[in-house]
Structures are given as structure tokens and as C-alpha cells.
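sry for the spam today, last one i promise. C-alpha cells for design, 682 residues
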């Protein structure tokens, strides 16, 4: 039986993958789906026919004195309902893909043997209903996938030299230009070349409010163009889009198993033999009673552990659905268990606690240096970097209508700066400490008196040209999220950044961090995470995924902010936040705790429920028909208890839809002080 659950889940994952492939194969899908629907309809009709015959048999008992006619009706009903159940159980036993229905099949066979056809039919009918409930709930990921596929565009209007051509969306290639009219789904990830509109991208990022888009903005496959006409240059199409990766993430998450599932598998091996042994003992000591076999049949039906099997996957599916609705993609369900134990969180500053949208607010050229030339060289060297600092400087240079040169021998040193050759001269741009390591003397700079700005030093052929100051604003909801995390028991909220101490202190003070580390390199971020783990903390690392991959990999859990459209963020983190709302992090921790609580409730209820009914069945207090009714009721209770998790996070959605953000509450901590990496407190 240890293989039963694992094989069942493997079969479920395979069914989901197969279903997704069928749904995506638009031309060939129709005939296959019609055949499947025909088989499903036939099965439902046979079940309804069997149920009708069974009801007729009971009604005939009160009409005819001769039991022959009611028994014949019950026999036909039992054959119609029971034979498929027994045949399927036999196939499962033969192939090794047991679905835990073999106990019920034994009960049906036993009822046939003693001639209780009404019991055999009733057990079969309600077991079929119970199996349908199980498949509709334990395979909830199928519904999630199908909902994603439904929003996946199947056709696109491609703009060519000859005009507009309607093509299959799966045939789009990077570089194609598509025209999206109001009300249409965007057929691929891309950037707007012309037009402006409002786009509803809730199904990707979880944002409740539509987002205004203009030329140059990024858009995602499956989102809805609401108002204007857009011409979009396709960057990614098909399974390479953000929507395609989201689909694969849900599939991957559904195929993983939590430690609780593995614990159940460990003890499941002994379940069926133990139940059969107990049933034999009950029959042996009660064989002198007329209802001895009835007791055994009832026990076999009650012992079918559908409620136990449903306890964990239904809760996990509900939790994954609630998280995905808010743009929180959990790549492995084991991370839902890890999240509830977190005691320390390490935040990267830029793009996580701050908006990451840096703006140049000040520039200080050296004596005799042309400010325009300094800015031109800086923009030329930085234009090949995707770092927020580089993008801010390059944008300013372009807005100033400076002619940028294409650099040669470009090299980006993470956490330090960039080196490039422009017009035959070497240009170094970065932090003062790195420039000092390169042998550049920046001398006594006026930058020492500048507080709260990120400084970028510019050196050309060994000569300091000056510095450029940039400012990054904190996220409006970050302070409240920090307070919420502290209320959830986070003992360490550490901010790390490669920026200057003056900038770091300002941001950390606004964010209510407990500790702060500035001017750190990627390797030093790893050291901070390792120190926290060595002191017994369960650590989550949160970054934007651009240059935080090593630190993200070091934490017990890694969370990437703003992962929509980012391959690096989605692949480097165990949890991907498709938007930049920090309130998703306390939501994830709360969801984790409630999910494990629901799983524990489900398992506790299922075990007590089955044991109690087994005892009552052994005592002859429950007949087979009541047993199968109770069996179905137990599964339904577990399903509805798990379904409560689906509504988690509705308060966040309502607040964002109304455009309100909660104000920070509670006292602010004392100002933070610098803490060396080797002295992070426990």
C-alpha cells in the first residue's frame, strides 16, 4: 500500500500532464475530448440506471410478497454497479496501481456470496459517488490548469507587410508583431510598440486593479487588453511565456509530496493487511451470528481510507489555489511546511524593500570635466547592464539626447561595478571601494557629505571624472508588512545591500528592520545567511532575483519579488511573487500555518472517524448500507474542511480593489545599528 498512494499520485500527475497536452493540441483535441466525454456520459448513465434499479428493488419489497422480483431487480442493479468496481480493482491489483478500492471490492464480492444483492448494489453505488468526489477534489490541479489554458489565446492577429493575418498563437515567434484589440487576450509576452491601454493582468500577477500600459511597457500572455488598440512585439510565445511557466509550476507543485504525505506512505504498507486481519478476527468470533458477514462487509467499506487519502492533497491544492490567486507561486508544496517555521528573513534592499526604480537626483563632475561628457560615457558603459542603477543612468543619458557609443570588452562585476572600453579608453563605473582595489585614487570627494544617495563613481583612463547620485524610494506597504511579520514571530528582519551605509540606515529605519548590513558583496550575503542558520534560525531570503541568486539558494526558503516575466527569478527561488506587494509574505506564512492545521484536523478526524465506525461495525451496530453512507460523509467533511483555505487572502484582494492600504501600526523599533556578518544575533 506504500506504493498505492505514491502510484495514485503519480497517476494523477500523469493524468494532469496528459490533460494539459490534450488541451493545448487544439486541432486534434476535439475528437479525443468528444470520445472521453462519451465514455464519461456512458459511465454516468450506467450508474444512474443501477441506482434506479436499486431504488425500484426496495420499492418492490413493499409491493410483492414474493421476494423473487425484488431480488432480481437488486441483482441486476448490483451487477450493473458492482462488476465495474470489482473489475477495476482486479486490474489495479494486477498492474500494481491500486486505488485503495480493493477493500470495498472485497465487500461487494462478499455481499454477492451471501446473496445480499441490495447491499452489494448500495455499496457499489455510493463507492462510485465517493470516488467521483475524490477525483473532483484530489485532482483540483486539473481544474487550475484548465482555467489557465482557457485564458491562453488560441489565435492572434499578426501584423505583416501585407497587412493583418490571423494565425495560431502557438506559431508566433520572437520578433513578430501582433495587434491586440480591446477585449482580446494578449497572445504572448512582449513589449508595446504602439498604442496605450489598460490591461487586466490579475491572472498573472494577482493584482486586483488593471494596470495602465504605454509604449515600451511589458505585457504578459493571457492578460486582457481592456481599452485601447495595441501593437505588441512578441518576446516569448507558447510554453516560454510567463503563463506557460506558471502552468508548469502548478504541475510541478502537484507532483511533489510533503513530509506528512511521506509519513502516511511509511505506515500505509501495513494498512490493508491489518484491516483484513481484524475483519477475519471479527468474523471468526461472530460466525455463529447471522449478521457475521454483514459486519465484515461494513468493516471493509468503512476501512477504505478515502478520507485519509484526501486529507493532505485537498488541503494543499486549496492552499496552492489561494496563493496562485494572489500571485504567489509555490514551486514545491514542502515549502508550505517550511514557511510556518520561519524565524528570520533576510531582505535585499533594491527592488525588494525599495521600488528598484532609481532616479538620478544629483551629479558632481570633477574640476574641468564636462558634465555631458561624463554622463555620455556613463550611459554608454552601462547600457548593456540590466541592473536598476545602470538602467536609471542610461535613461537619463538618453533623455538628455546624448549620443551613446557601443562599448567593447564590456564586463559587469556583481556588487561592484562595470568595466568597458569606449573609443579606445577604459571606463570604470562603480563603488569607491572597488575603484580603490583597481588602483584608482578618488581623493577627497565632496560625496562624503552626501547622505541618503547611492553614489556611482566614473573613471576614464584612470582619471576620476566625478560621481552620480541616485535615489530609490521605499515601497509604501513595506513597513506594514514588516510589522505584520514581527507579529507572526519573526525574530530577525535583516536588510542587506551593497549600497552605502547612509542609504542603508535610512531605508532600514523606515522599514523597522532589526538589523542592517551595507556595502556587502554577494559572498558576504551568503555569510550572513549561513550565520543565521548556524544559530538555529529557519531563514527565508527575499530578493528580486536579478543578482541575488547565490543568496537565494542559501536560505531554507527563497522568495523572488516581481517574478512576472523574469526567468532568473522564477528558476532561482522556491517561491515566486508575481507582483511586488510585500504583504504577500506574511500572507504566505499565515497560509502555511493554517494549511498544516487543516491537514492535521483532516487526518485526526479521518483516523478517529474510521476507528470509531470500525468498532461499531464489528459490534453489529452499522450495516453495510449505513457504512457506505458514513464513508461518503467522511470524505465530504474532509473536502469541505480543506475548501476553507481557498478563501484565504480575500481581505487583501478587497483592500487592493478598493485602493486602500493599511497604515503601519505599533511602535517603531529603535534605530538600527550596523551589525558585522559574524555577529548576527540569534
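last one done:
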Amino acid at each position: 500500500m506504500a506504493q498505492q498512494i505514491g502510484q495514485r499520485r503519480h497517476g494523477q500527475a500523469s493524468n494532469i500532464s496528459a490533460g494539459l497536452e490534450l488541451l493545448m493540441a487544439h486541432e486534434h483535441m476535439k475528437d479525443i475530448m468528444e470520445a472521453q466525454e462519451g465514455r464519461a456520459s456512458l459511465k454516468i448513465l450506467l450508474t444512474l440506471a443501477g441506482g434506479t434499479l436499486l431504488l425500484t428493488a426496495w420499492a418492490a419489497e413493499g409491493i410483492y410478497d414474493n421476494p423473487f422480483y425484488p431480488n432480481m431487480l437488486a441483482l441486476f442493479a448490483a451487477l450493473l454497479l458492482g462488476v465495474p468496481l470489482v473489475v477495476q480493482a482486479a486490474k489495479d491489483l494486477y498492474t500494481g496501481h491500486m486505488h485503495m478500492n480493493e477493500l470495498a471490492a472485497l465487500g461487494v464480492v462478499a455481499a454477492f456470496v451471501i446473496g445480499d444483492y441490495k447491499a452489494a448494489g448500495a455499496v457499489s453505488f455510493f463507492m462510485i459517488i465517493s470516488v467521483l468526489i475524490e477525483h473532483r477534489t484530489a485532482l483540483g490541479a486539473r481544474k487550475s490548469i484548465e482555467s489557465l489554458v482557457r485564458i491562453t489565446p488560441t489565435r492572434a492577429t499578426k501584423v505583416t507587410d501585407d497587412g493583418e493575418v490571423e494565425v495560431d498563437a502557438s506559431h508566433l515567434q520572437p520578433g513578430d508583431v501582433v495587434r491586440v484589440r480591446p477585449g482580446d487576450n494578449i497572445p504572448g509576452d512582449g513589449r508595446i510598440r504602439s498604442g496605450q491601454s489598460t490591461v487586466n493582468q490579475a491572472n498573472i500577477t494577482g493584482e486586483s486593479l488593471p494596470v495602465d500600459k504605454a509604449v515600451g511597457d511589458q505585457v504578459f500572455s493571457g492578460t486582457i487588453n481592456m481599452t485601447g488598440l495595441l501593437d505588441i512585439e512578441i518576446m516569448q510565445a507558447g510554453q516560454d511565456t510567463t503563463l506557460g511557466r506558471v502552468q508548469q509550476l502548478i504541475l510541478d507543485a502537484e507532483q511533489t509530496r510533503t513530509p506528512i504525505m511521506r509519513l502516511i506512505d511509511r505506515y500505509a504498507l501495513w494498512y490493508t493487511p491489518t484491516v483484513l486481519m481484524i475483519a477475519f478476527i471479527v468474523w471468526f468470533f461472530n460466525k455463529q451470528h447471522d449478521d457475521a458477514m454483514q459486519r465484515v462487509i461494513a468493516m471493509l467499506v468503512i476501512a477504505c481510507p478515502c478520507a485519509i487519502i484526501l486529507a493532505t492533497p485537498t488541503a494543499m491544492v486549496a492552499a496552492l489555489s489561494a496563493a496562485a490567486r494572489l500571485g504567489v507561486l509555490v514551486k514545491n508544496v514542502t515549502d508550505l511546511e517550511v514557511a510556518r517555521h520561519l524565524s528570520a528573513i533576510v531582505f535585499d534592499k533594491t527592488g525588494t524593500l525599495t521600488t528598484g526604480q532609481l532616479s538620478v537626483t544629483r551629479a558632481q563632475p570633477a574640476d574641468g570635466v564636462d558634465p555631458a561628457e561624463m554622463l555620455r560615457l556613463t550611459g554608454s558603459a552601462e547600457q548593456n547592464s540590466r541592473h536598476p542603477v545602470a538602467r536609471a543612468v542610461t535613461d537619463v543619458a538618453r533623455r538628455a539626447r546624448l549620443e551613446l557609443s557601443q562599448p567593447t570588452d564590456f564586463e559587469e562585476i556583481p556588487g561592484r561595478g562595470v568595466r568597458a572600453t569606449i573609443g579606445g579608453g577604459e571606463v570604470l563605473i562603480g563603488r569607491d571601494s572597488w575603484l580603490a582595489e583597481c588602483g584608482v585614487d578618488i581623493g577627497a570627494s565632496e560625496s562624503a557629505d552626501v547622505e541618503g544617495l547611492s553614489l556611482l563613481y566614473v573613471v576614464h583612463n584612470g582619471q576620476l571624472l566625478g560621481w552620480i547620485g541616485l535615489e530609490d524610494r521605499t515601497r509604501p506597504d513595506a513597513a506594514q508588512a514588516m510589522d505584520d511579520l514581527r507579529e507572526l514571530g519573526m525574530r530577525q528582519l535583516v536588510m542587506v545591500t551593497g549600497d552605502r551605509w547612509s542609504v542603508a540606515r535610512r531605508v532600514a529605519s523606515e522599514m523597522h528592520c532589526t538589523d542592517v548590513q551595507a556595502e556587502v558583496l554577494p559572498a558576504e550575503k551568503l555569510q550572513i545567511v549561513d550565520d543565521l542558520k548556524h544559530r538555529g534560525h529557519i531563514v527565508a531570503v527575499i530578493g528580486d532575483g536579478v543578482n541575488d541568486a547565490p543568496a537565494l539558494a542559501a536560505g531554507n526558503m527563497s522568495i523572488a519579488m516581481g517574478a512576472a516575466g523574469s526567468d532568473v527569478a522564477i528558476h532561482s527561488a522556491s517561491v515566486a511573487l508575481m507582483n511586488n506587494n510585500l504583504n504577500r509574505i506574511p500572507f504566505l506564512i499565515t497560509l502555511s500555518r493554517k494549511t498544516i492545521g487543516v491537514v492535521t484536523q483532516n487526518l485526526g478526524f479521518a483516523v478517529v472517524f474510521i476507528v470509531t465506525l470500525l468498532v461499531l461495525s464489528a459490534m453489529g451496530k452499522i450495516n453495510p448500507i449505513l457504512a457506505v453512507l458514513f464513508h461518503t460523509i467522511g470524505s465530504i467533511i474532509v473536502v469541505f474542511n480543506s475548501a476553507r483555505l481557498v478563501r484565504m487572502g480575500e481581505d487583501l484582494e478587497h483592500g487592493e480593489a478598493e485602493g486602500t492600504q493599511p497604515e503601519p501600526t505599533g511602535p517603531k523599533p529603535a534605530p538600527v545599528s550596523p551589525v558585522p556578518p559574524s555577529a548576527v544575533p540569534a
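Confidence is low (pLDDT under 50) at residues 1-37, 137-142, 660-682. ok im logging off now
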